[in-house]
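Box 4.2: Ligand-aware structure prediction
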Amino acid sequence: MEKSAIYHQPCSSYAYPYDKETMHIKVRSKKDDIQSVVFIYGDPYENIKVDGEYQWVSHRAEMKKSATTNFHDYWFIAIKPEYRRLQYAFVLTDSNGESVFYGDRDFLPNDQVTFSVPDNFFKFPYIHEIDLFKTPEWVKSTVWYQIFPERFDNGDPDRSPENVLPWGSKDPDRDDFFGGDIQGIINRLDYLKDLGISGIYLNPIFKSPTNHKYDTLDYYTIDPHFGDKETFRTLVQEAHKRGIRIMLDAVFNHIGSKSKQWQDVIENEQKSVYKDWFHIHSFPVRDGENGNFDGKPSLSFDAFGFTTTMPKLNTANSEVQNYLLDIATYWIREFDIDGWRLDVANEVDHAFWKKFHQAVLKEKEDLYIVGEIWHNAWNWLQGDEFHSVMNYPLTKSIINFFIEDKIDSSQLISSLNGHFMKYSRNVNEAAFNLLDSHDTARILTLAKGDAQKVKQALAFLFAQTGSPCIYYGTEVGLDGGNDPLCRKCMIWDEEKQDLDMLQFTKKLIKLRNDYHSILSQGSLDWLETNDSSKKVLHFSRELGNQSLIFIFNHGDKEASVSLKEDHSYTDIWNSKEIETKKIDVPAQGFTVLKTKS
Amino acid sequence: MEKSAIYHQPCSSYAYPYDKETMHIKVRSKKDDIQSVVFIYGDPYENIKVDGEYQWVSHRAEMKKSATTNFHDYWFIAIKPEYRRLQYAFVLTDSNGESVFYGDRDFLPNDQVTFSVPDNFFKFPYIHEIDLFKTPEWVKSTVWYQIFPERFDNGDPDRSPENVLPWGSKDPDRDDFFGGDIQGIINRLDYLKDLGISGIYLNPIFKSPTNHKYDTLDYYTIDPHFGDKETFRTLVQEAHKRGIRIMLDAVFNHIGSKSKQWQDVIENEQKSVYKDWFHIHSFPVRDGENGNFDGKPSLSFDAFGFTTTMPKLNTANSEVQNYLLDIATYWIREFDIDGWRLDVANEVDHAFWKKFHQAVLKEKEDLYIVGEIWHNAWNWLQGDEFHSVMNYPLTKSIINFFIEDKIDSSQLISSLNGHFMKYSRNVNEAAFNLLDSHDTARILTLAKGDAQKVKQALAFLFAQTGSPCIYYGTEVGLDGGNDPLCRKCMIWDEEKQDLDMLQFTKKLIKLRNDYHSILSQGSLDWLETNDSSKKVLHFSRELGNQSLIFIFNHGDKEASVSLKEDHSYTDIWNSKEIETKKIDVPAQGFTVLKTKS
Ligand SMILES: [Ca+2]
Ligand SMILES: [Ca+2]
């Protein structure tokens, strides 16, 4: 038995309350090393007298091997502790019949002496509803659509920057303006409703000199090239009328160098009232002086990266905290927005995000909070900071398999399983899942224009736990490499739109909307493919007695996949009954089956 | 290479800021499997142009194997990131020369392709001083003394319960009273000062019908058998004059059934204004009705265990929160106490403890917070709840080796290393270390009266990182089995005191006080013993260029231990110079050396 690989951490994603009465417990072992895991559990205080001595009342249950990665098996059980307290341990047995007890004091002999000592067991001391990881219920059934406002539609040509370029007249350079605005989004709400999406994530819309507006000049003002407060109010109201929610982008890690606060520091240096709003190591902070050259590590103040136009805010300063928290609640209070996406969220302190969480949820209890974090974000996802992060690790796995053919099906499964196992189920159910964004090359470009690959990747994304997001234009075949090329103007000319992709996207969104419960909350089980090329994926999503079967054939020839004998199936993607217990999926194709009860 | 055993978790006790500029990084591998670990790191945004392409500026450093357990090696490095941001990964090489890259996307080939992708690296995004785990500086140099007030000294015979028993006249039963009080403690402050301790942890002193007072009746009143507010104020003032700090016991998980709040619920049931202060499943809640029999799982309300006299408080209720937070700050504000020990801390919700942390530290910024948690408490030790927990896992390891001879030296080292590795260094430095308490049998009784074993165990406890605590009476040979026997009256009759133990304890406390910096903050390295019986321990504690060497011989015959050749040594325990590079330690003995610079 490879004991060095066995891992459990109490009070973590390995042992957490899924709801106010259910505990989820996981333990990890070396792949293929352990044959069975028995879960020993009970209330820490429940004892009965046996032959004059008190004995702990314990129960036993088999754990299920629920996920496997390249190196590990994950064992799972869900338990409802009768008195809300849980004392537990694992008995792991390998194929040679060796058994060990694994608990809070590590490995011990699997015997009565071990069992008689309460300290040998792990504890989940008490399930407190107030400590649950709670996410807004609406998020799970939402399909998101991300809009980069400057490039979606120019609905108000009078509100455009001076040097505005004709819509779509060229590929964007870093400093180009094309005149997109909020009125443009309002004008297209019916289009979006028809597409089927139910949430819009907007890149920044507050006053700023750039087209991307990540260098905010004034957080209380809508950028005049985008509209004004009334335009924005109309957008939220009209979106809500159509059942579409609005999430804004909060850039709180740094402010724009053109803001009054930074300008005051430039001018008044040590004497500025805003001096402590930043992390300044020496004055002056003016561009081109004292080491302050854009992109150079010699900056005399902390910035986003080494970008002189984005000085970092000191979020430990209570004036800054009050300022940002007022902004965060202002746009909820006055305009009824539904979510905040937090830019560079990982570089802002946890203490601030905890205050942010409390403040915004007090204003609107089902507001959604998504942090921009590209790496393992477990520490921000403990229930008191974010509901979710931009799920880029999922993005990367999907691209590696479907788009760039860098990994095979077993590697894809391993990386997805490993990724989902990092978090609690509550986190995964509210994940913000995406294939691309304003910060990455577009999926169609990564696929070198192969629309079929894009369709497979999109369909796979939509089949995962969490809420999928479509980056504007993907549905009509918009392409583009890394920033600034991924921010091209939306294609509104039907002749230039990929109408096949549009129909496909609508169909996919409808599928997601029709089966949102099972797709957001159902379990995922990987099934047998008998595919030696490792290009075929076969998995089920199950909730209650409902289940969907997904089959993706990423290979070059038709794949034939066996279905479980004890069910009958309908192909809901192609709207036909399945007569046999086998299904043929064409090369680069996929399908979705529903089991009949 | 056993990849399944390799473990690192970003933003955890494996990667944390030790202070505002220093990161501590650990990675775990299978014992004896890995030969070297190279730490690759840099600022995530620092790139230089090489041949027209941007390349990340990275650095390399060897990690040190800093601890070994039965199954794992732990590799460590401390790094000061120049721009407060850290991007990092590990290159692990085994004895066959196989090398792998280990980062945020798990294992990858150790090649340039891997290095060129920032997402392959772990991140510590930014060191925020506000998020540091901060502990009161004074704790590290404190030697604690725990007093169970009813049994320490009867300083005011007029303030004693009616049926008070003559001091020490019998072994205590559960319901006995012996008349101990706060005046008794005041009278003995000079004794304690002379002993050398610098902090008193008092078991509960608020009004309650029992001798242990864990069933509080009124948190605003000193128990009248113990004294009144003026007596308590005098105690704090007189202790402070002598450089002794006072920590009280906060019993916030539950309240006493005789409290006005619970009595009101008994009487008024659903109509009680205190109904939501508890977790009540059905009425009535009166003893002997509706399943409410002491010790039975059929209770119709949540309690401490199944104890009817200790109904659990609903700390998610804001009225309860305000009530308890006012109590927590009242005793600081009005009486200047220095610490709170939190009873049954693990069963109270995290949200409450975060509020508690903020409230009490706002009142007194260097107040010490110690939770009663017997198991792995990592989740309460993230910097925003407790500074420490009662370090019972350390207790158990010491007892297993020194007192009960259940484990050998290698098992002791493994369990200590494993335990310390669970937490950050900041946590370990402020740990509340103890051998026994009101909740366990006394150490002398566990040692079956063998005072020499007790001396070894105490000396070893005092040599560890963290603050040691002596349970009242240990210094004079007080014994006693499990509760209630561990709560015997203090021995004040010198003829009955173990005066040799008293001298020993004073000497040991003096050693700790003389070398508090090195003992609380120095590193600990286990050294060679050449002892096949596995009864000898040899370790150094080092800080800066100072170091102490401890040698414990728990065997039955003299042990001879070789010292490093490149130093000369003074035996500071026995006050003699060491002339050779070898030292002989008698059976069941120990000594402490100081290296001469
Ligand atoms: Ca416009
Ligand atoms: Ca008395």
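In the box above, the bound molecule is calcium ion. Residues 257 and 309 of chain A are 5 Å apart (CA to CA).
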